[in-house]
């Protein structure tokens, strides 16, 4: 199982988005959230910001397993143990002694996968993209600060979380409505016409009134992506479905300007 999963999938060890800048722009406190799993940092941050219920999706089995490991680590480890598990020799194998306390909090599939991963001393550098130092990650997320780590731990224990392996385009089949949705930069990995159709037809149905969908993360300032935006997010068409489009710019840890495109349902 492990070889097959790793052969066809790779995932981000930690986020490469400045989540701490844009996720607080969305009101998730006490709300229902749909988020990409990716590295597990999106759901961890949404929980810290107060999400009550969360569905984590990803097309990639390894991302769901890695995210499951990280969310279980939050629930079971102190912040020092968490740092040791994820950042001590972060490109080498996961050490058994660091992994053992997390085992009890894993579901059977994630447990079987990581038991083998640890036993076979799989190198993280061989299967994770962007697994940087903690000094960079703390500039991208909120939870590495000691007090915030404990708040994240408590929030994750109080949040009802489910995970589903799904293509983004199959999410409407879940037939659920959400207050907030986080789609990372999946827009850049899929056909533009399909994504545009989803924004115009499915997202307005999936959002509750007053809800927000963070529909794209861009690694450039707004102006440099105007054509791209126009293709994916047509304000006139979206307005007919009660959706307003806004772009929020912010500085990333290297002082570059990034932005997100957010869809708001009135
Ligand atoms: C687009 S990637 C980029 C990583 C991201 N910037 C971060 O900070 O973690 C985020 C996740 O989207 C998932 N993904 C890519 N295409 C997808 C699709 N069509 N449907 C669902 N998930 C997808 C990937 O497996 C990955 O885990």
**Radius of gyration from CA coordinates:** 18 Å
Helix and strand composition category: alpha/beta
DSSP strand (E) fraction? 15-25%
How many H/I helical runs? 13
Strand order in the sheet with the most strands: 5-3-2-6-7-9-8
The biggest sheet amounts to: 7 strands, mixed
Bound ligands: S-adenosylmethionine
Tally of strands: 9
Arithmetic mean pLDDT = 94
The N- to C-terminal Cα distance equals 45 Å
H/E topology pattern: HEHEHEHHHHHEHHEEHEHHEE
* Poorly predicted ranges: none
Helical percentage: 40-55%
Envelope shape: globular
Keywords, please?
single chain, 266 residues, alpha/beta, seven-stranded mixed sheet, 9 strands, 42% helix, binds S-adenosylmethionine
Notes on the structure:
The chain is α/β, with parallel strands linked by helices and 266 residues long. It is built from 13 helices and 9 strands. The chain has helices at residues 2-8, 19-22, 41-48, 61-76, 79-87, 96-99, 108-119, 124-127, 134-140, 146-158, 192-206, 226-232, 235-240, and strands at 11-12, 32-36, 53-58, 128-129, 160-165, 178-182, 207-218, 243-251, 257-265. It has a 7-stranded mixed beta sheet, sandwiched between helices. The mean pLDDT is 94. The structure holds S-adenosylmethionine. S-adenosylmethionine is lined by residues 11-12, 15-17, 36, 38-39, 58-60, 63, 167-168, 184-186, 189-190.
């Amino acid at each position: 199982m492990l070889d097959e999963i790793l052969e066809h999938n790779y995932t981000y060890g930690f986020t490469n988005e400045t989540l701490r800048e844009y996720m607080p722009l969305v009101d998730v406190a006490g709300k229902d959230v749909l988020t990409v799993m990716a590295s597990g940092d999106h759901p961890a941050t949404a929980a810290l910001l107060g999400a009550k219920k969360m569905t984590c999706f990803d097309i990639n089995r390894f991302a769901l397993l890695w995210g499951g490991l990280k969310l279980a680590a939050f629930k079971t480890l102190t912040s020092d143990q968490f740092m040791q598990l994820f950042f001590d020799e972060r490109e080498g194998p996961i050490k058994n002694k660091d992994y053992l306390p997390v085992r009890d909090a894993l579901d059977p599939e994630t447990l079987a996968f990581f038991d083998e991963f640890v036993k076979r001393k799989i190198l993280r550098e061989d299967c994770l993209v962007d697994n940087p130092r903690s000094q960079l990650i703390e500039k991208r997320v909120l939870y590495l600060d000691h007090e915030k780590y404990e708040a994240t731990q408590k929030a994750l224990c109080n949040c009802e979380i489910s995970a589903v392996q799904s293509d983004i385009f199959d999410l409407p089949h879940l037939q659920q409505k959400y207050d907030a949705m986080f789609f990372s930069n999946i827009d850049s990995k899929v056909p533009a016409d399909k994504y545009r159709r989803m924004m115009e037809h499915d997202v307005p149905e999936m959002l509750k009134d007053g809800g927000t969908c963070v529909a794209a993360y861009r690694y450039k300032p707004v102006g440099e992506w105007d054509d791209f935006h126009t293709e994916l997010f047509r304000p006139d068409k979206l307005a007919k479905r009660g959706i307003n489009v806004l772009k929020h710019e912010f500085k990333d840890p290297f002082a570059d300007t990034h932005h997100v495109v957010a869809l708001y349902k009135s």
